Amino acid sequence: MKELIVATKNPGKVDEFRQMFSKYDIYVKSLLDIDRSIDIEETGSTFEENAVIKAEAMAEHFGVPVVADDSGLEVDVLNGEPGVYSARYAGIEKDDGKNTEKLLKELYDVPEEKRTARFVCAVAVARPGESTFVRRGTCEGTIAIEPQGTNGFGYDPVFIPEGSSRTMAEHSSEEKNAISHRHHAIQQIEEWLKLKANRGESYAKSFNCE
Ligand SMILES: O=c1[nH]c(=O)c2ncn([C@@H]3O[C@H](COP(=O)(O)OP(=O)(O)OP(=O)(O)O)[C@@H](O)[C@H]3O)c2[nH]1
Ligand SMILES: [Mg+2]
């Protein structure tokens, strides 16, 4: 099976990337498999900048094409916070439970109609010696009054996607992967790969991983 490096140490992202790339017979390897000591500073002010920083640093380090994801939650009534700081919202220890608790506290007196938010995901593909490609996907929704469900990761227990009455953590992984911000970003990467495929190159060859 072909392999593709995704420059992340977030196990929730790894699971979702693995599921989404398995249909191309591509096995996703993450920094959790390769080297947990690697730490890339996210110094960008946008999701796209951070995704590019992570993908390019690792493509240079490993000398092969690398994919990276920078994502987070934008809450309208908080002027887009926690945004690029979503992982570190309640502190550098990146505790999903504490982040969610802090968010619910910030929103405790905000009525349902003003709890609109979106998940944002930027996915970058960096290849040594070639220009980097980055695309954004979003998933609109609202923030629940209290956490519900145990699937997914991060803010999933408090995020209700548009058109649903359940939180993301009450959706199965198949359901989440059909509507998520990550799915929409990867779909655009796939569109780009299809253009390449139409020129006679396979998906895997585009990533140079076969
Ligand atoms: O409920 C959620 N469902 C999702 O689908 C999702 N995607 C992202 N997030 C949140 O946004 C942070 C990303 O920050 P982030 O892109 O810097 O990732 P990270 O630091 O966890 O890992 P890495 O990829 O940088 O190694 C994460 O920690 C999460 O809190 C999500 N929450
Ligand atoms: Mg990070």
Summed up:
The chain is α/β, with parallel strands linked by helices and 210 residues long. It has helices at residues 11-21, 31-34, 47-62, 96-106, 173-179, 181-198, 203-207, and strands at residues 2-6, 26-30, 66-75, 116-126, 133-143, 159-161.
CATH architecture: Alpha-Beta Complex
Main sheet: which strands, in order across?
2-1-3-4-5-6
- How many H/I helices? 7
Fold-level CATH name: Maf protein
Give the distance, in angstroms, between the N- and C-terminal Cα atoms. Answer: 8 Å
Mean of pLDDT: 93
What percent of the residues sit in helical stretches (DSSP H or I)? 25-40%
What integer value in Å does the Rg equal? 17 Å
What oligomeric state do the depicted chains represent?
single chain
Structure, explained:
By secondary structure, the chain is α/β, with parallel strands linked by helices. It has a single domain, classed as Maf protein (Alpha-Beta Complex). It contains seven helices and six strands; from the N terminus they run E-H-E-H-H-E-H-E-E-E-H-H-H. It has helices at residues 11-21, 31-34, 47-62, 96-106, 173-179, 181-198, 203-207, and strands at residues 2-6, 26-30, 66-75, 116-126, 133-143, 159-161. The protein has a six-stranded mixed β-sheet with strand order 2-1-3-4-5-6. Helix 1 (11-21) links the parallel strand 1 and strand 2 (26-30). Helix 5 crosses helix 6 (181-198). The longest helix has 18 residues, at 181-198. The protein is globular. Ligand CZF is lined by residues 8-10, 13, 42, 69-73, 86-87, 94, 99, 119, 152-156, 159, 180, 182.
